[in-house]
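User: Hey, quick favor. My workstation is busy. Could you predict this chain's structure for me?
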Amino acid sequence: GIGERLVKMAISSMKGKLIAVIGDEDTCTGFLVGGIGEINKNRQPNYMTVNKDTPAMEIEDMFKSFLKREDIAIVLINQNIAELIRHVIDQHTSPIPSVLEIPSKDCPYDASKDSILRRARGMFSAEDFR
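Assistant: No problem, here it is.
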């Protein structure tokens, strides 16, 4: 059906695209060891390591730069870091790049804080799943 075609189109449009990560040191290290680290032709990395001293404005600027890049399909961000720039994440409505909030070692995932999940819940009713 049409849903299947949309999924196929989304997947083909994401082929060859990168995953970006905004996270604490452990999160970034884990993803980099897993092989996601890239530097584009403008020498921009696809990850940002955040610590307790990183200004929220710096995180916000990097997040916005990831959203503008044509080579990024998914932005992973630790949920506790996403909380610092929630207003910017809430403004992002485009399906690509997708923004996924992930837990960190110190902060478990809390579905009630996830703006994308809250938005998705608003799109469906319980009837849709019967």
